[in-house]
Design brief:
PE-PGRS family protein; 4 domains; three-stranded antiparallel beta sheet; alpha+beta; elongated; about 500 residues
Length: about 500
């Protein structure tokens, strides 16, 4: 039996988000996602199609509800029809119909042997008061969803919340996966205006969630992007995109529309003061053979540059393989990429960078109710938001580099001061040693003078004048030497710098 109300595991959340983004390549690997998608379809979160032999999946209203709130939507209440209700149904000659407002995915309203009706106001006049009372009771006892509860706890905690990271037991999280809740809050606009949610991992398997002021410039207003039905003269970037057919990831039938959408996007971006261009070829490293080749996933097709921060946009048709992957599989030159019959005619714009930032979508495609033309304002708004974020990160890097340089200079000054202090101590200790040696030498020289005078007095009565002369000569040199080594006979000053620096 399917556990309809249970929480999804991490793998199911990843696959559900992946399907909501249009099943982009490079996000999930292998084929196990199909089994996960079947499980999600059993819970009425996705709808799988194999039309034309091509596997595809779309998110239902219930799936979008789960991504937005982190829980399953409430199921409608059912009751067995009474005898009078059955007679009424039979008398009218009509069969119970599927209620489009029922549980996501649609529940069958009964069988010939088991009629059922949905409780609605007005089906029983006597039940109006009871229905109103039940509605009020439900509103009074409304339980906050995980995202709402997390935001309320953040506000109560002064903008900081420390939570446990979940442990998965038998595929089920032991606690709510708050990282997924943060992504859902950012993705579906649940964060208060002018704020943003930031997460960081803490010790002890903890996750710190902070409610911070939004980055300046990220409160982008979505403005219309005119898309002409016919274009007499295409923008040069659109012409380059059209002519570089070796980069196309679209089939021939949709080339004209894709070029027209690229034209509309780059014209509006240029009108807003942004720079536009064709995605450049990757810079080779180590020669052509070892250089990285262009790929739509990494490099995109066109670029929009705002304030020096470039963002690449990829244009791809849903169902068409990645150009790089196709070339690797058809390196012998068999067949033509544009003649591939796997295209669905559904165009998709996506921003390179492997996933949306802070949970925001980075892929826009034709849908059942809207077309890609309707979503071009969202594409440009996300590009402008990313440019503001990149500028903020660049400022943070500059500030961090400047602070690191200041710390380095402070450390260098401290080291220089330490060397200077060490040098001054060495000079002082050397002076003490020379002063002590000079004092001992001076005492010896004084004794030498006394001895020479005594000898000179004795030698006056006899020979030996030459010996006395040599002694006085030696005494004179010794007295001069004492003065030379005595630091007190020299200028005294604080050493200003270390010699040689």
């Amino acid at each position: 039996m399917v556990d309809y109300a249970g929480a999804l595991n991490a793998r199911q959340v990843v696959v559900l988000s992946w399907i909501a983004d249009g099943c982009p390549e490079g996000v999930v690997s292998g084929y196990s996602y199909k089994a996960t998608a079947v499980a999600l379809q059993g819970r009425r979160l996705v709808a799988i199609s194999k039309r034309g032999g091509v596997w595809s999946a779309t998110v239902t209203d219930a799936g979008r509800f789960y991504l937005a709130h982190g829980r399953m939507p409430e199921r409608p209440t059912w009751k067995r029809a009474g005898r009078q209700d059955r007679r009424t149904v039979v008398a009218s000659g009509s069969k119970p119909k599927r209620d489009s407002s029922a549980a996501p995915g649609g529940d069958r309203l009964g069988t010939p042997g088991d009629a059922a009706v949905v409780e609605t106001a007005g089906s029983n006049p006597d039940a109006d008061d009871d229905s109103s009372a039940r509605t009020k009771a439900a509103a009074k006892g409304h339980r906050r969803g995980p995202v709402e509860q997390m935001l309320a706890d953040l506000v109560d905690g002064g903008g900081v919340l420390l939570v446990d990271q979940p442990l998965y037991v038998a595929g089920r999280p032991s606690t709510p996966d708050f990282e997924q809740l943060v992504l859902s809050a950012n993705r579906y606009g649940k964060v208060p205006a002018g704020k943003r949610l930031v997460t960081s991992h803490a010790a002890g398997r903890k996750l710190e969630i902070r409610l911070e002021d939004a980055i300046i410039g990220t409160d982008v207003v979505r403005r219309a992007v005119p898309v002409p039905q016919r274009v007499s003269r295409y923008h040069p970037v659109a012409v380059l995109f059209r002519d570089r057919s070796e980069r196309h990831e679209i089939s021939k039938p949709v080339v004209s529309r894709a070029v027209r959408l690229v034209h509309a996007l780059v014209v509006e971006a240029e009108r807003r003061g942004h720079e536009v261009g064709l995605a450049p070829d990757p810079v080779p490293y180590g020669g052509y053979s070892s250089g990285r080749r262009w790929s739509g996933t990494n490099d995109g097709h066109i670029t929009v540059t705002i304030g020096g921060h470039a963002q690449a946009v990829r244009v791809i048709e849903v169902g068409m393989p990645s150009r790089r992957h196709w070339e690797q599989q058809n390196y012998l030159g068999r067949g033509s990429y544009s003649a591939s019959n796997t295209g669905t005619g559904v165009l998709r714009f996506e921003l390179t960078g492997y996933g949306g930032r802070e949970g925001r979508t980075c892929r826009w495609a034709d849908g059942k109710r809207t077309t890609l033309e309707d979503k071009l304002p969202d594409v440009l708004a996300e590009i402008e938001t990313r440019a503001a974020e990149d500028a903020h990160r660049a400022r943070q890097r500059q500030e961090a580099e400047a602070e690191a340089q200041r710390r380095l200079e402070r450390a260098q000054r401290r080291e220089a001061q330490k060397r200077l202090e060490k040098h001054r101590a060495e000079v002082l200790h050397d002076q003490v040693k020379r002063w002590e040696r000079a004092a001992r030498t001076r005492a010896y020289v004084a004794a030498m003078r006394t001895e020479i005078e005594t000898r000179a007095a004795a030698l006056d009565t006899g020979n030996g004048g030459g010996e006395v002369a040599r002694a006085w000569e030696w005494l004179a040199w010794a007295e001069q030497h004492v003065d030379d080594i005595d630091p007190l006979t020299q200028p005294l000053a604080l050493p200003a710098e270390v010699p040689g620096q």
